[in-house]
Design brief:
The chain has about 140 residues and is an alpha+beta fold. About 25% of the residues lie in helices and about 25% in strands. It contains five helices and five strands, in the order αβββββαααα.
Length: about 140
């Protein structure tokens, strides 16, 4: 099978959502960071963190980034790498899992916690602060 044909089949499989509920041993986790060599550090709804591997069919075809949700299945031979990615969750599959009460409640509050205020913003100390003048200040300066 050529690379293009393989990529087409993998992308179709990833984008086509069969709305299959997870099996007993499968779980939904959130990606924290990429560790290289197709390994990703994830967190469970309980807060446990461990490494998962990307299967060969997804490599160089589908990318996962920090904050994405994936469906994983545990592997027995892993000491450090404890699971393998089965499915990358998209909005439709997340909505389907929520409708069927399978989505972890701990992950529901993640979107609400990401809202930040201006106090959390990074302050660049390499630039001088901009001074804002009001209209009364400018009229006093012109007189």
């Amino acid at each position: 099978m050529s690379k293009v044909t393989k990529r087409k089949h993998v992308m179709n499989e990833a984008l086509w959502d069969d709305y299959e509920l997870p099996k007993e041993n499968q779980s939904v986790v959130r990606v924290l960071r990429s560790r290289g060599n197709n390994l990703h550090e994830v967190t469970t709804p309980n807060g446990e963190e461990y490494l998962v591997s990307m299967p060969t069919k997804f490599r160089k075809n589908i990318w996962v980034k920090r904050g994405d949700y994936v469906l994983v299945e545990p592997i027995v031979e892993g000491d450090k790498v404890k699971a393998e990615i089965i499915k990358i969750m998209n909005k439709d599959s997340m909505k389907y899992y929520k409708e069927n009460n399978i989505w972890p409640k701990e992950f529901d509050c993640d979107k609400k916690q990401t809202v930040s205020n201006d106090n959390d913003l990074f302050v660049n100390t390499n630039r001088h602060p901009i001074q804002n003048y009001s209209e009364s200040d400018s009229s006093e300066l012109s007189e």
